[in-house]
Design brief:
The longest helix has 17 residues. The radius of gyration is 22 Å and the shape is elongated. Strands 1, 2, 3, 4 and 5 form a 5-stranded mixed β-sheet that branches. It has 4 helices and 5 strands, in the order βαββββααα. By secondary structure, it is α+β, with helices and mostly antiparallel strands. It has a domain of 71 residues: OB fold (Dihydrolipoamide Acetyltransferase, E2P) (Beta Barrel). α1 packs parallel to α2.
């Protein structure tokens, strides 16, 4: 499966939008000095960072794992929730702003 390359901060942004299901770290070399963060999305796709120092990859993965453990993805507004949201400015009858301003001056 082809993974989509991203920056670490962009993967964290996916977390805050509730799009990450799980995360893992994969070493890039035998010396284990560089690694990449691999995140599986709720859509089944995978994204990865470029090879970065192991310490940085570990920090990113720990942050993501902790947020997932706390259930932050359940607290975020998702597309499903947006079906109930309506724009009150565009619904309802015609409004005359000029008339409303004139009425308020009286």
């Amino acid at each position: 499966m082809n993974r989509i390359p991203m920056k670490g901060r962009d993967i964290e942004s996916l977390l805050y939008m509730g799009k990450i299901q799980s995360v893992n770290v994969e070493y890039c070399d035998e010396a284990k000095k560089e690694a990449k963060v691999i995140a599986k999305l709720v859509t089944g796709e995978e994204v990865e960072t470029e090879c970065i120092p192991v310490r940085a990859a570990g920090k990113i993965s720990i942050v993501i794992k902790q947020y997932l453990k706390m259930g932050v993805d359940k607290l975020i507004i998702q597309d499903i929730d947006m079906k109930e949201v309506r724009n009150v400015d565009t619904e309802g009858g015609e409004e005359n702003e000029v008339q409303d301003r004139q009425d308020s001056k009286e």
